Amino acid sequence: MEHTTEHKLSVLARVARTLNEHELSWALASSVVLYFNGVAEEFHDLDIMVDEAHFDAAAEALAALGEQHQPVLLPDKYATKRFTKFTVDGVEIDLMGGFAIVRGGAVYHFPMTPDTVERTVQVQGQAVPLQWLELWRRCYELMGRAARVESIDRFLEERRGHS
Questions:
Q1: Adjacency order of strands within the sheet including 82-88
Q2: What does pTM read for this prediction?
Q3: How many domains is the chain partitioned into structurally?
Q4: Which of 70, 98, 149, 154 is the right S-S partner for 81, CB 3.0 to 4.6 Å?
């Protein structure tokens, strides 16, 4: 069942409150970054990057909010060090630490650091850090997601034209 954007944002606010209360280093990633930047009109799940040192604490915090899934094997195109899935009120959440993409025999690492956070937005009174849109353009490029890259490029070009 696909939930409304309002429902997903409500879940996001609960997740943000929990992660922030635990003082964890985290940020939203992937399609949610595109949504908050106006590149995409919707998002289907919440992709959360966390500092690897905070992965276990983040997983424990999220498990208190919903259901943690059995360990998931990632496709060969990823070399992410830590990964697990949750469902909170019907919304899927991917929690990642040490995100990495494999392309052409090389591994490209994208660890969560303060430098990977572009800005913080408020969602129902909760601070929600967002990773850089340009970072996700590079990730999508490495993943071979041409339509996403083109959408981001169009958005960035329009933004440059308005500044």
A1: 67-68, 82-88, 91-97, 46-50, 26-29, 126-131, 117-123
A2: 0.93
A3: 1
A4: 98
